[in-house]
Amino acid sequence: MNVYLDDFIHYLAYEKELSKNTLESYKRDVSQFIDYLKGREILDVKEVNKTTIITYLLHLQKLGKATSTISRNLASIRSFSQFLLNEKFIDKDPTIHLESPKSEKKLPDILTLEEVELLLAQPDNNNQIGIRDKAMLELLYATGIRVSELVALDCSHLNLDMGYITCCSNQNKERIIPIGSIAKKAIDEYINKVRQYLVKDKIEMSLFVNYHGTRLTRQGFWKIIKKYTQKAKINKKITPHTLRHSFATHLLQNGADLKSVQEMLGHSDISTTQVYTLLTKNKIKEVYNKAHPRA
């Protein structure tokens, strides 16, 4: 069978012109499959059928291989089988109608209410930058907006009297999101005590500005949240999106309806928002297991 493998790799290299890394990946996957076949005393490619491949995929699963690795292996075997069919080494492709294993949905990382409180308490309210950072963190958690939306905010997008911000999503769809009283207070303090001293040009419209008085960047905010995560000594990988995930999960845990959370997050498809219900179900199960005497 190794002769077929050599021909297959030659075909991918010179006819498909694949990269060296891709070729090595195909060769490794198919070579391991051939070794498995030899161990099962399957020495003719015509003996390989659908059941053989399914059994091999299950074998990889038992070895603890990730779903993504198993899917890649199937893709390599599929390409190899199609090559053998095109070259008339086999009569039919055994991978037809074989579906790749579905990856489990990775649940987003969230913070507990206590961890949110700890993180938001880190900025120093005795200096200008601390007051600015406090306002940004409070707004991010209060509204669940993306970091790109946060740094894109202009002063005109803010209505403190009515208690909301106007935000534009990636699809340029405008949405109105309420601001909580704590975030409102933090932003009010930033605007009245700090922003005017940070801004160098009076025509600057950005709500949140950096040391140079110009619009804060996404990269700049990443550094800020990393600094406060380390300061809070929270043993989790926290990104700006972690506060968005926490916002959505905490709303649902406290009785908010899915449709409202979808609108605030700016999700076009409610199935994207539904991932947060899995987190709330996990929380309920955790509480049950700890509290029920027969759990």
Task: Provide structural commentary.
The chain has twelve helices and three strands. It folds into two domains: 2-86, Orthogonal Bundle (DNA polymerase, domain 1); 113-291, hpI Integrase, Chain A (Orthogonal Bundle), CATH 1.10.443.10. Strand 2 and strand 3 form a beta hairpin. With 295 residues, it is mainly alpha-helical. It is found in: Cytoplasm.
Q: Strand count, sense and closure of the main sheet?
A: 3 strands, antiparallel
Number of strands: 3
Instruction: Evaluate the radius of gyration.
Output: 27 Å
CATH architecture name of the largest domain: Orthogonal Bundle
| Mean of residue pLDDT values | 87
- Number of self-contained structural domains: 2
The CATH superfamily of the largest domain turns out to be Intergrase catalytic core
Helix-strand category:
mainly alpha
Question: Percent helix among the residues?
Answer: 55-70%
Distance between the termini: 54 Å
Number of helices: 12
Low-pLDDT regions: none
Say what the CATH topology of the largest domain is: hpI Integrase, Chain A
Order of helices and strands: HHHHHHHEEEHHHHH
Strand content: under 5%
Shape verdict: elongated
Q: In CATH's first tier, which class of the largest domain applies?
A: Mainly Alpha
Q: Biggest sheet, strands in spatial order? A: 1-2-3
